[in-house]
Amino acid sequence: MNTGLNLPPKVTERAFARLAEINGDGPTRPLRVAVAGGGCSGFQYDIRLDEAAEDDLVLSGAGQSVVVDPVSLPFLAGATIDFADELIGARFTIDNPNASSSCGCGTSFSI
């Protein structure tokens, strides 16, 4: 893990805009980005709508929030959370400088 990189993750305007579309006119729910063991490369991303916990890092923009728990934060230091809409599908993506390799679909990685 790139421990010299102590920057918090950042979220692109495109990701916040997509989260706003998902939340619609109803109450806004934060997007949780977490890291768990598993996947084909050792770790996998868990991305879902959730509630913020007291000890989460909250990243805000465009009236939306992305939350990261303290255990996942070192794995996501300096990462960029984005949204991609491509021919193969639309999804939130993570450009993670801590990952030494990742699977083809981008949902798991190794350090």
UniProtKB/TrEMBL annotation:
Membrane-spanning residues: none
Domain Core: 10-106
UniProt xrefs under InterPro entries: ATAP, ATAP_core_dom, FeS_cluster_insertion_CS, HesB-like_dom_sf
Origin species: Paracoccus denitrificans (strain Pd 1222)
Example GO biological process: iron-sulfur cluster assembly
Single GO MF descriptor: 2 iron, 2 sulfur cluster binding
Protein name, as recorded: Iron-sulfur cluster assembly accessory protein
Pfam families, sorted: Fe-S_biosyn
PANTHER family reported in the protein's UniProt record: IRON-SULFUR CLUSTER ASSEMBLY 2 HOMOLOG, MITOCHONDRIAL
Annotated coiled-coil segments of the chain: none
Listed NCBIfam families: iron-sulfur cluster assembly accessory protein
Gene3D superfamilies xref list: HesB-like domain
